[in-house]
Amino acid sequence: MNMSNEEYINYVNEKSPKSKLGIDCLKAFVIGGLICTIGQCFLNLYKYLGADKETASTLVTVTMVFLGALLTGLNIYPKIAKHGGAGTLVPVTGFANAVTAPALEAKTEGYVLGVGAKIFTIAGPVILFGTLSSVVCGIIYFFIY
Predict the structure, then answer these.
(1) Which domain holds residue 28?
(2) Cα–Cα nearest to 62, from 75, 44, 43
(3) Model's pTM, two decimal places?
(4) DSSP assignment letter at 52
(5) CA pair distance 46, 127, nearest whole angstrom
(6) How many CA atoms lie within 13 A of 131 on its CB side?
(7) Residue 16 located in a structural domain
(8) In this structure, is residue 2 part of a structural domain?
(9) Would you give per-residue pLDDT tens digits along the chain (145 residues)?
(10) Residue 66: which of 92, 44, 47 has the closest Cα?
């Protein structure tokens, strides 16, 4: 089958799936913003209940990690992530999901060789390289300042 470059480009454009980048970015922005808004509501609540800013911030992190893990266990967070994409990965709830999901999948293999061995398969590299880069940045900061 002989095709000119123009015919080939038209053929590829016909067969290629249409990009939904714009709508995907909008959904990620809205869902990620909603998660952050919920976190802000908890921050305001904890401050209203008398916690200082630092304690309230810690409580928000713990609450959001708990909610992310709970929603993952109830199979709700993956449904939200299907639509929210990166908007659900960036907040701390995404970290909770990254730790909880492999643990739930591996629980049939037992607590030691299943959950214990696989709980950090996704989040482990993030923790490792996040810690390593913070050490490198700290060393650079030490010598510059």
Answers:
(1) 21-144
(2) 43
(3) 0.67
(4) -
(5) 28
(6) 6
(7) no
(8) no
(9) 677 888 888 888 888 888 788 899 999 999 999 999 999 999 999 999 999 999 999 999 999 999 999 999 899 999 999 988 888 887 788 878 887 877 777 667 776 777 676 766 766 777 777 788 889 999 999 999 8
(10) 92
